[in-house]
Write a structure and sequence with these properties.
single chain; 330 residues; Rossmann fold; seven-stranded parallel sheet; 15% strand
Length: 330
Amino acid sequence: MPASLTDWRSLHGNRFDGCRVLITGGAGFIGSHLAEALGALGASIVALDDLSGGSRENLKGIDRVEFVEGSILDRDVLAACTKDCRYVFHQAALGSVPRSIEQPFRYHEVNATGTLNVLEAARLAGVKRVMFAASSSAYGETPVLPKIETMAPDPLSPYAANKAACESLCRAYSKSYGLDTAPLRYFNIFGPRQSPDNAYAAVIAAFAKALLSGRHPAIYGDGEQSRDFTFVHNAVHANLLAARSETKIDGQVINVACGIQISVNELARAMAEGFGRPDLTPVHHPERAGDVKHSVADLSRANAVLGYKPIVDFHTGLRAAMDWYKATLV
C-alpha cells in the first residue's frame, strides 16, 4: 500500500502530538491502521491485544507503540493499560456473524462483557472519550435504505446483538457517569492486513485468497446482496475526528461508510479482472443464517457531528487492498 495514500498530518495536524492513547485490538486489522495513523501524528500508543486475531507483525515500523499481550477480559491488565490515557479506541472483539451463531456464549463474554470492562477501566482512569467499533449488522434486515441511525436496532445474530448491546452500554456510561463515548457503526471495512486465513474471512479477503490461489470465489446466495464496502482509512479518519471533537458525542451512534452500494457479484467481477483472472467466475452456495441482504449508510449524522466525509473511495481502496494481497499471498 503506498505510504502516500493518506496524509494524516494534513487531515489532523498536531491534534494528537504527545497524547497517550489505548487501542484495544491494537495488533489487529483496524487497530493496527489506527496505530499507524496515530504514530504518524505523534501520539504515544498502548496497543493491547491477545493475538487471537491480530499479529505483532502488524505493528512493525510504527513509532511510539507499547505492545501489551493481554485480554479485555482481564480487568487488571486493562487498568494498567488505561492509566494516563486521554483516549481509548476500543476495537477488540470477536468478529464473524456465522461463528457467533456457533459460539453465542463466547461472543457475549468477549464482545459485551469485554466492552463493559473497557468502559469501566476508562471511567476509573478519567479518560476523556472512548471510541467504540460498532457494527452496521445492528440494523438487521429492515428493507429501508439507506440505513439511518434513528432506526431501531434489529440484530439477526449473536454478533449483531453483542454490538447493539455495546452501543447501549456506551450511551449508558455517557449518561450515568459522564464518560463521553462515540459508537461508530462500521460498514464492511476492508483493506491491507485483513486476514483471509480462516473460514469466516471477510468477503474481499476471501475473494483475494481464492483468486490468487487459482480457485473460484465462493458466494453465499445469489450475489445480488449489496454492501457499503469501506476502506479502512475511512474508519481510522472517523475515529480520529471523533476523538478530537470539541463537543460531546454523548453515546450517539454514528455511521462510518462511503454511502455507496456495491453488489457481491460486482465485487467478484472487479477483483477477478483486477487479478487478471476473469475466468474464475464465482461458485454459489446457499445463503448463510444471519446475513443481511442489502446495506448502505446514510452519512448525514457523521458529517454533521464529526465533519466526516470518506477520504478514500471504494475503487481506490480496492486497488490498494488487492496490491497488498498480491504482495502478501503470492
